[in-house]
Design a protein that fits this description.
The structure holds 2 protein chains of 2 kinds. Chain A is mainly β. Chain A is built from no helices and 11 strands. In chain A, the strands form 2 sheets. In chain A, strands 2, 4, 5, 6, 9, 10 and 11 form a 7-stranded mixed β-sheet that branches. Classes of the chains: A mainly beta, B mainly beta.
Chain lengths: 116, 111
């Protein structure tokens, strides 16, 4: 497909488990964003990559959250020792622009994480 | 941090009615965006606004960038069942990449 894809679409974890969420951006897109969307809320920024460089991680809520994009395409968001408050939909977005062109940010369908 | 206040929180309307929603902030922005999110999907961009006072249409949707640069409005004319969903306003995070979103307006259409 031509859009942003994310996997898995649904993930259930027991409290304390580690999880890894994958994002496949649109081919050739330079910029990649991760957002967290709690139930009934708008998406909240987590982190931003330009190619393989993580330029902004100011939105990551704790040091249990870690993101990487080693080859500048696929990205993984890892959450260690999951807590119930981590339950949310995790959205990935990509853009072929480096910055400033927000109308060209395309979102994936998200991964719904439930921590029991 | 910057906060976008959306209202109303939810709307129950009849098919064929017009819809109005808005987004306000205490901060000034150079860009306002409106997204729609369907259940189980990511947000999809509807309209982007880049200039104070700008009025932009996309089919039955019309959005305006407020003169004060602190607010924006979205109108939907002659609503149809597929308009159901959650509408978000968004603006650039001040001095950083990525977007700040409002909490959304949940639109429900009764046939």
């Amino acid at each position: 497909g031509a859009g942003v894809s994310q996997s898995p679409r649904y993930k259930v974890a027991k409290r304390g488990q580690d999880v890894a969420l994958r994002c496949d951006p649109i081919s050739g897109h330079v910029s990649l964003f991760w957002y967290q969307q709690a139930l009934g809320q708008g998406p909240e920024f987590l982190t931003y990559f330009q190619n393989e460089a993580q330029l902004d991680k100011s939105g990551l809520p704790s040091d249990r959250f870690f993101a990487e994009r080693p080859e500048g395409s696929v990205s993984t968001l890892k959450i260690q020792r999951t807590q119930q408050e981590d339950s949310a939909v995790y959205l990935c977005a990509s853009s072929w622009r480096t910055s400033g062109y927000y109308n060209e940010q395309f979102f994936g369908p998200g991964t719904r994480l439930t921590v029991l | 941090g910057q906060q976008l206040n959306q209202s109303p929180q939810s709307m129950f309307i009849q098919e064929g009615e017009d819809v109005s929603m808005n987004c306000t902030s205490s901060s000034i922005f150079n860009t306002w965006l409106w997204y729609k999110q369907d259940p189980g999907e990511g947000p999809v961009l509807l309209i982007a606004l880049y200039k104070a006072g700008e009025l932009t249409s996309n089919g039955r949707l019309t959005a305006q960038f407020g003169i004060t640069r602190k607010d924006s409005f979205l109108n939907i004319s002659a609503s149809i069942p597929s308009d159901v969903g959650i509408y978000f306003c968004a603006a650039p995070r001040g001095g950083a990449d990525g977007l700040t979103f409002g909490k959304g307006t949940h639109l429900i259409i009764q046939p």
